């Protein structure tokens, strides 16, 4: 018998219409190889009454806040216009409930403001939509806001950037709980990418640059050559820029230095290969551009806190070469 994971989605006033349905669409459609559903996703408001959405209509969920205490995971979708986003003031009743839960907590977009206002992000890394990241950091200085990433997994509390990053987070949670093959199946069914590289900076429209084209072509070129020992000089030469100009423009466009960006892309590639192939770790280290197993182990541990073999075992299971249910979260 499948152990179904209970998910409760808490809709707050002025909820983002797109985001309130994401957990049901993605986590609710996760099934094992026999077709058994792995999550039961239910949506509620604190009092069971209707709430207004960002799209100008109201929703009336089937449940009230009592289901929150039965949940293994509680999701807070984004909030459109409310005091918690504008001023950092959360309804005391909501704060009391959130702080009393014994569940994994997830937020999408500005839902992070509710978690922060309840004190649940103090001392933790977190993210939100890039347009609101500065305000989140200003209102809640105890939160370690990272405005660049698509989502942050801090174990029992996870936060994501705006709108579509909620898809990335839900797929990440399915992958973390049940392995890559289950998450990939969900992604295919929803016709979305199972994995998106990079952070939010790539989606921020930069001001017009009279000096000429940016670094995007060079980044695309580098992604096809991650197994090569790319140097900063080679990247700048491909972009037809001086090293100084290339470095400045690269940081303006991505929010990262070229070196940090390269490491992140190589870690992403290594994770993908560990999840989806049977290649030896030594070969993956070479194909991902780290050269040695020791270097791969060092960078993977710095990024997600686990070694390559442990990562592969977690996401694919010990006995299933094509992605069995994970034995434990990463």
Q: Could you outline the blueprint of secondary structure elements for this entry?
A:
Elements: E1 5-10, H1 17-20, H2 22-26, E2 39-44, E3 51-52, E4 58-59, E5 73-76, H3 83-86, H4 92-100, E6 104-107, H5 111-117, E7 125-126, H6 130-139, E8 144-145, E9 151-153, E10 157-160, H7 165-178, H8 180-190, H9 216-223, H10 232-238, H11 243-254, H12 258-276, H13 281-287, H14 293-304, H15 308-316
Parallel strand pairs: 1-2, 1-5, 5-6, 6-10, 7-8
Antiparallel strand pairs: 3-4, 9-10
Helix pairs in contact: 7-8, 10-11, 12-14, 12-15
Question: How would you describe this protein?
Answer:
It is built from 15 helices and ten strands. With 330 residues, the protein is of the alpha/beta class. 42% of the residues lie in helices and 11% in strands. Strands 2-1-5-6-10-9 form a six-stranded mixed sheet, with helices on both faces. Strands 3-4 form a two-stranded antiparallel ribbon. Strands 7-8 form a two-stranded parallel sheet. Helix 7 (165-178) packs antiparallel against helix 8, helix 10 (232-238) crosses helix 11 (243-254) and helix 12 crosses helix 14.
